[in-house]
């Protein structure tokens, strides 16, 4: 017997000290994004179908090229802002 945990797809934009990442995070079905993030203390969260923009310490874009990645892993300790898209 196989157990399946239902998840929901959430499109987000995440700002860290060195990048802005737009992509998809999967949370528990009907769960809150904030609960998912706080439950991952001292861990990394996967962001799929990611578009990464690199920024400097002042928040200015370093390179106008957007890097496309199948998946990136973000340290939850480095998240400055997260918003729904």
Blueprint (SSEs and pairs):
Layout: E1 7-16, E2 19-28, H1 33-39, E3 44-54, E4 67-75, E5 79-84
Antiparallel strand pairs: 1-2, 1-5, 2-3, 3-4
CATH class: Mainly Beta
Low-confidence stretches: none
The domain count comes to: 1
Terminal CA distance reads 36 Å
SS-derived structural category: mainly beta
The total of beta strands comes to: 5
Question: Could you give the order of strands across the largest sheet?
Answer: 4-3-2-1-5
Approximate helicity band: under 10%
User: Number of helical segments?
Assistant: 1
Q: Give a quick account of the main beta sheet: strands, pairing sense, barrel closure.
A: 5 strands, antiparallel
Radius of gyration: 14 Å
Fill in the CATH topology: SH3 type barrels
Oligomer: single chain
Strand content: over 45%
Secondary-structure arrangement, i.e. CATH architecture: Roll
Order of helices and strands: EEHEEE
Would you tell me the overall average pLDDT?
Answer: 90
Shape: elongated
Structure characterization notes:
The radius of gyration is 14 Å and the shape is elongated. It starts with 6 loop residues before the first strand and ends with a strand. Helices cover 8% and strands 54% of the residues. It has a five-stranded antiparallel sheet with strand order 4-3-2-1-5. The protein is built from one helix and five strands. The protein has 85 residues and is mainly β. Strand 1 and strand 2 form a beta hairpin. It has one helix spanning 33-39, and strands spanning 7-16, 19-28, 44-54, 67-75, 79-84. The protein has a single domain, classed as Roll (SH3 type barrels).
């Amino acid at each position: 017997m196989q157990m399946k945990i239902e998840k929901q797809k959430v499109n987000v934009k995440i700002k860290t000290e060195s990048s802005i990442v737009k992509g998809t995070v999967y949370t528990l079905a009907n769960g809150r994004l904030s609960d998912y993030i706080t439950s991952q203390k001292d861990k990394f969260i996967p962001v799929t179908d990611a578009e990464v923009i690199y920024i400097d310490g002042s928040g200015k874009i370093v390179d106008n090229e957007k890097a496309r990645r199948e998946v990136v892993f973000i340290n939850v300790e480095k998240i400055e802002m997260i918003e729904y898209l």
